[in-house]
């Protein structure tokens, strides 16, 4: 009873934090002076420019999702199932674009190619490099659910090419479809890259109506098609939830022996890393010009960076705590409507940050909630709502792997659910909680749109400062600021790698 009461309170808190602001925003767009009206929607959808931007967003999302899924599936199999040397190192390198604010990559590539890079293909290329790691990670994860004995039996009759096509790929098809839909939704709601590269997409409409005209109703109406597109993820999430996850240890997985293909594939992967990771970083280093520019940037960035680190650490802690609690609720299925919690968390992650930020402004910008809205607490609420899905899903994977018999034995010995949680589940989950904290820290640190919409005076962060400098700052200074941002983002990964290496040595 106490367990359900505690976690019921957690669910209620998360509902107020994320879903309720969106509902308030939607209802506010449907009423004017207490009367139901669709005026905002009729006026907005009579705008031909709006439908052109909607078409642009759809084509952009379809292009990015198709390219990311097609290439990401192949790279996921190569990195997660083959005997390729340094596969884990390559995987870490390919993750870097996902961890860097996308507009920084757009700035680097635009500096290399100039005006030619602005427009549809420039935005598509940057988003492809950002979202490709998502597909790779999903495929690598789901490869651990493929029954190795099925592949072993098939290998007695055929080679790996046919086994992959007839056995492995059909078994991970739900993961492929899910990765495609997730990338499609994220690309459909993209704002910062399209805004920087001056390509009109639908997600900018709501931001324009809010920032330029302060029209909340029109901003909500402009966001409705995005919400409808994002709703597709509910169906896919429900479909995947029917499958019980059984993870196969890496030692039992059937590995693909590359033989003569090892060298060509190694070179191909190296070229991909050079193109997507090393090239934009090199552009920024060259653009910085001198150590003086870097030192100047460090002096200007000190205060915003300090605030960024403080907010990111607080956000990561909240994300870790509530990610664990949410994962526990979903894994244990404590409530009959646990899937709604699961879907809502994923919905908030997939929604454009600009839309969620506007919803938070509408909900919290009131006299009696000013103690939250006028302080950095509103930024932390934005981080928690936006990125809770990351820490929840990471923790959920670990909870699935904890042997059920340990908890059953403790329960039979008279242990309460609290004791089981404190003495069994948490100790066995400490490593994944650390990983979740690092991921929460990185994504909170790189967040720009929500912070830009919500931060109170004097609380701007480094991503916001960089974004404002891009309007009229010196290119060398901007490049140096971008490098500082990248270093700050990647340092936690370095510390996590060192920690894991130390743990392996002790074992």
Keywords, please?
MetI-like fold; 1% strand; globular; mainly alpha; 507 residues
Structure commentary:
- This protein has helices spanning 2-30, 39-44, 48-81, 87-99, 102-113, 120-143, 148-155, 160-171, 173-188, 192-196, 203-211, 216-230, 232-241, 262-288, 291-332, 338-350, 353-364, 370-373, 377-401, 404-412, 417-446, 449-454, 462-472, 475-506, and strands at residues 31-32, 35-36.
- By secondary structure, it is mostly helical.
- The chain is globular.
- The chain folds into two domains: 1-37 and 290-507, MetI-like (MetI-like fold), CATH 1.10.3720; 50-288, MetI-like (MetI-like fold, Orthogonal Bundle).
- α1 (2-30) packs across α16.
- The two termini are 40 Å apart.
- Strands 1-2 form a two-stranded antiparallel ribbon.
- Helix content is 80%, strand content 1%.
- It is built from 24 helices and two strands.
Q: Tally of extended strands?
A: 2
Order of helices and strands: HEEHHHHHHHHHHHHHHHHHHHHHHH
CATH names the topology of the largest domain as MetI-like fold
In CATH's first tier, which class of the largest domain applies?
Answer: Mainly Alpha
- State the distance separating the first and last CA atoms: 40 Å
CATH level 4 superfamily of the largest domain: MetI-like
Q: What is the count of structural domains?
A: 2
Q: Helix tally? A: 24
Q: What structural class should be given to the helix and strand makeup? A: mainly alpha
Strand content: under 5%
- The gyration radius over C-alpha positions equals 23 Å
């Amino acid at each position: 009873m106490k367990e359900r009461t505690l976690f019921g309170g957690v669910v209620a808190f998360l509902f107020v934090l994320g879903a309720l602001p969106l509902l308030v925003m939607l209802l506010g767009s449907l009423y004017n002076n207490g009367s139901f009206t669709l005026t905002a929607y009729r006026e907005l959808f009579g705008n031909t420019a709006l439908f052109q931007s909607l078409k642009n967003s759809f084509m952009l999302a379809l292009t990015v999702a198709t390219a990311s899924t097609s290439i990401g599936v192949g790279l996921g199999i190569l990195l997660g199932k083959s005997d390729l040397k340094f596969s884990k190192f390559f995987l870490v390198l390919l993750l870097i674009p996902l961890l860097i604010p996308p507009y920084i990559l757009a700035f680097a590539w635009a500096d290399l190619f100039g005006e030619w890079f602005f427009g549809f293909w420039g935005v598509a290329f940057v988003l492809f490099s950002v979202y490709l790691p998502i597909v790779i990670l999903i495929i690598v994860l789901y490869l651990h659910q493929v029954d190795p004995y099925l592949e072993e039996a098939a290998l007695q009759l055929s080679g790996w090419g046919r086994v992959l096509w007839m056995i492995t790929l059909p078994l991970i098809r739900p993961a492929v479809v899910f990765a495609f839909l997730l990338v499609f939704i994220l690309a459909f709601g993209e704002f910062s890259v399209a805004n920087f590269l001056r390509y009109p997409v639908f997600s900018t409409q709501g931001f324009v109506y809010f920032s330029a005209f302060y029209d909340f109703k029109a901003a909500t109406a402009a966001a409705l098609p995005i919400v409808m597109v994002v709703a597709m993820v509910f169906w896919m999430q429900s479909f995947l939830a029917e499958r019980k996850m059984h993870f196969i240890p890496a030692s039992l997985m059937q590995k693909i022996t590359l033989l003569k293909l090892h060298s060509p594939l190694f070179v191909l992967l190296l070229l991909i890393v050079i193109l997507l990771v090393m090239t934009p970083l090199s552009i920024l280093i060259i653009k910085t010009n001198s150590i003086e520019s870097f030192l100047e940037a460090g002096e200007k960035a000190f205060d915003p960076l300090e605030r960024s680190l403080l907010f990111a650490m607080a956000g990561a802690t909240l994300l870790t705590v509530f990610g664990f609690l949410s994962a526990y609720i979903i894994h244990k299925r404590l409530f009959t409507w646990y899937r709604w919690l699961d879907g809502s968390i994923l919905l908030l992650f997939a929604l454009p940050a600009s839309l969620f930020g506007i919803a938070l402004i509408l909900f919290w910008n009131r006299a009696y909630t000013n103690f939250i809205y006028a302080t950095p607490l509103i930024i932390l609420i934005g981080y928690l709502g936006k990125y809770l899905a990351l820490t929840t899903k990471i923790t959920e994977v670990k909870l699935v792997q904890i042997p059920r018999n340990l908890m059953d034995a403790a329960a039979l010995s008279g242990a309460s659910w609290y004791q089981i949680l404190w003495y069994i589940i948490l100790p066995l989950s400490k490593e994944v909680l650390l990983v979740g904290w690092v991921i929460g820290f990185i994504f909170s640190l790189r967040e720009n749109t929500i912070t830009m919409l919500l931060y109170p005076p004097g609380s701007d962060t480094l991503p916001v400062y960089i974004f404002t400098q891009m309007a009229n700052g010196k290119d060398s200074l901007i490049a140096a600021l971008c490098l500082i941002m990248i270093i700050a983002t990647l340092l936690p990964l370095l510390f996590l790698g060192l920690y894991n290496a130390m743990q392996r040595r002790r074992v």
